[in-house]
Write a structure and sequence with these properties.
This protein has 14 helices and twelve strands. It has a seven-stranded mixed beta sheet, with helices on both faces. Strands 9-10-12 form a three-stranded antiparallel beta sheet. The protein has a two-stranded parallel sheet with strand order 1-11. Strand 6, helix 7 and strand 7 form a beta-alpha-beta unit. It starts with a strand and ends with a helix.
């Protein structure tokens, strides 16, 4: 049976060159904090990766903090900036946080934690295309705003947010601006200095690197309270011996993503557009969610009305095709996508959505195979759907 992986927004396979870099790094077993030659070797490996990440962002090496994942990076910013004991000295006069309604759970749920501590969290809405409403965001800003956190590109629809405009909006107001760029980094050119960002989160396993490693860009003039206290590691912001092997893998993955960024963007955009066109042509009552907005080239979110997306997912899995019904971090939930609901969709349409996320290994043959399977699956499921039968009945009257 043919196997087709179309869930690259959830995770990506490790690139062979990344794997080779990690295998080589396994020979460097010293503790990077040790001053002997074994430790210096490990320290050099980590610092080379740090410089690679910094250069990719237009940042300085000392502004890059290695973490375990994008979720930890998000937590470090949101909790570390607003902590009651924070060296940022954010007190009652700076007790409000603004996030968007379409954020990743690691931002949404961390913000809920802040609410439990008595802080005010404003949820900025998005329009029907999944883009933050800038006029509402501006109205939410005040002298009490401590932090604005808006993701760079949405993990479910691929919608790219107006980060540059938001950065200009908060500039000069004493407000810290953070973006979760996990789905954008490595796919879109990002320069943190040109964008005037304070913090940016990224993750290794979204760019063909290993799971278990991420990074946080922190403008060197900004302060943040650590989540993990202990030794002096990572500029006193994340105690614990560094994960040398995974950091080396992240560095290599970043190098490869920059090398291939432009060519992969063009290739995947062409494949995605062809795929969506074929689906629209062959599968009636299918709708691309957020299709007419600037979005990442590899992401396609499609609703197949009158049937459950979960059923489509399992049927496609029997055909060897891996897709998603939304964020991988929310896959255990029976609730419809909070992103699609925030875009104004009813529960039925949101429940019928499937996310197809393409990657380096995706070919046109893979997508043609997927369209064939989709046409069969949707037809079969709709023939069993009372909602579909009701629609056909109403049309025949």
């Amino acid at each position: 049976m043919k196997r087709v992986y179309l869930d690259h927004n959830a995770t990506t396979p490790i690139h062979p060159d990344v794997k080779a870099a990690m295998v080589a790094a396994m020979e460097v077993f010293g503790n990077a904090s040790s001053h002997h030659s074994f430790g210096r070797e490990a320290h050099e490996l980590i610092e080379n990766a740090r410089k690679t990440v910094a250069d990719a962002l237009g940042a300085e090496p000392e502004e890059i903090i290695f973490t375990s994942c994008g979720s930890e990076s998000n937590n470090l910013v949101i909790k570390g900036v607003t902590c009651g004991n924070s060296i940022c000295k954010i007190g009652s006069e700076k007790s409000e946080v603004i996030i968007s309604a379409i954020e990743h759970p690691s931002v949404l749920n961390t913000a809920k934690c802040l609410q439990g501590e008595g802080k005010t969290v404003h949820l900025c809405p998005v329009d029907e295309k999944g883009v933050v409403k800038l006029d509402v965001l501006e109205s939410l800003l005040s002298s009490r705003t401590a932090l604005v956190s808006i993701m760079y590109a949405n993990n479910e629809t691929g919608a790219i947010q107006p980060i540059e405009e938001i950065a200009k909006m908060v500039a000069g107001k004493g407000i810290i601006f953070h973006t979760d760029a996990v789905q954008a980094f490595g796919k879109i050119p990002i320069n943190v200095k040109e964008l005037n960002l304070d913090f940016l989160s990224l993750s290794g396993h979204k760019i063909y690197g290993p799971k278990g490693v991420g990074a946080l860009y922190k403008r060197k003039t900004r302060k943040v309270c650590p989540l993990i206290h202990g030794g002096h590691h990572e500029f006193n912001l994340r105690a614990g011996t560094e994960n040398t092997v995974h950091i080396a893998g992240l560095g290599k993955a970043v190098e490869l993503s920059l090398r291939d960024m432009d060519s992969e963007w063009q290739r995947l955009a062409e494949l995605r557009n062809w795929f969506e066109g074929e689906v629209m042509r062959r599968v009636p009552e299918s709708v691309v969610n957020g299709g007419d907005v600037s979005r990442t080239a590899h992401t396609s979110n499609i609703s197949f009305r009158y049937i459950e997306g979960e059923s489509i997912l399992y049927d496609l899995d029997f055909d060897g095709i891996a897709v998603s019904t939304g964020s991988a971090c929310s896959s255990g939930s029976l609730e419809p996508s909070h992103v699609l609901l925030a875009m104004g969709m009813d529960h039925g349409r949101a429940h019928s959505s499937i996310r197809f996320s393409l990657g380096r290994s995706t070919t046109k043959e893979d997508l043609a195979y997927t369209v064939d399977a989709l046409e069969r699956t949707v037809t079969r499921l709709r023939n069993m759907s009372p909602l579909w039968r009701d629609k056909l009945r109403q049309e025949s009257v």
